[in-house]
Amino acid sequence: MRRGLGLREAVSLGVGGTIGGGIFVLIGEGATLAGPAVLLSFGLAFLASLVIAFPYAELSCRYPLTGGGYAMTRQVLGKHWGFVMGWVFWGSYVFVSGYVVVGFGEYLSALTGMPATTASLLLVLACAAVNLGGVKLSGRWQNVVILLGIVVLLTFAIVGTASLHGDHLTPFFPTGLSGVAAAALVTFLAFGGFDMVAAAGEEITEPRRNLPRAIFLTLFIVLGMYVLVALAAVGTLSPAERAAQAPLARAAEELFGPAGGVLMAIAAVLTTAATANAVLIVTSRISFAMARDGLLPAVLARVSESTRVPWAAVALNGVLFSVVAVTVSIPIATTVGGFLYVLHFVFPLVVLVVTRRRRLPRNDDDFRVPAVRFLMPLAFAACGALLLTSGPVGIIGGSVWVLVGIICYSAVLARQNSVNDSGMTRGRDWTRWQKPRGKRL
After folding, report:
1. Regions of the chain with pLDDT less than 50
2. For residue 438, is it within any domain?
3. How many domains does the chain have?
4. Is there a domain that residue 2 lies in?
5. Among 28, 158, 373, 416, which one is least packed by beta carbons within 10 Å?
6. DSSP E strands: which ranges in 322-426?
């Protein structure tokens, strides 16, 4: 892949993949579950993200490859575990795309009156077009959009925190600690940009220096934005308004009048679009990497000779985004996507343990996890706690996705074994799973 993303573009990719969906869509979901205590949920989610980000940063230096955690897992644990991890990783972001794209549709509908579903589908089409134009074009677009979104959100946060309604912050725990725990999964999902950076590792310049920096900068920038904006939102909106469509647009209208609501809706449209673009980059690179390794159909490994973009993988994921946007609600998308998203972090944590025990070679200037004996157990515990908070819907939905993947992979292995044993099969030539006919990298 072409290394066209510098530190700024990498941070923009991470922040863009986090802020749009996290603030404009998930803040309403989190406040509905926990009330004003969603601020505590954001803090817990940040701590969980931070302890997981440390091992992720070390591994991204060792394996700066397209596919992020999937590439790391396959490299160390082998192709079978690599497939399971890649399938979980891919599925998590396919479901994540649901709340991002639907959230975009709701804000654009509030702004223009266009049907939300139509707006969502148009966004998927636009993101696919931008991605097909090349990673440099995509990265520049992210920079412009995220800068605008940050300016609008900071203005809202400063004014909103200066004019809080104290009665809106009480009771602080309307649903108790169980509500805080349930909202922790949603808010953890909102911090999901740092692994997007690693997933595009093969396209980032000076990866050993820029990848760890981009990962931690993404987390701290997003934390500051979330705390300020969440405080302004819950202090401005009543409990009923927090659960309504386009909650931040309503809050801005309370503070600045109708013009403020319109400006916030415009910022929401732009930043959720940036998030959708970042998610499409990640999902297409995951499926591309798996196809390149012979774990998915070889057609997904085809790359444009002019832009070096995996066009087939971009097209497939655009179709999947459209299906999820039309068929899945925001609560289901966040619950199932959250379960899969947390689960996919378990694999890189195991990879780091195995890597350290095998004493695999590394560069002396690579980032290393400090206090590893303390942080690694915390990272595993954080993943376990978040998996439990996803509840029956998340656990069942995520398990079904994993089961479908195992069935598909078993069929692929059976076909490959048949080819190896007989030298040919009836009907379709399944050797394409192993030897892509298109351009390989």
Report:
1. 424-441
2. no
3. 1
4. no
5. 373
6. none
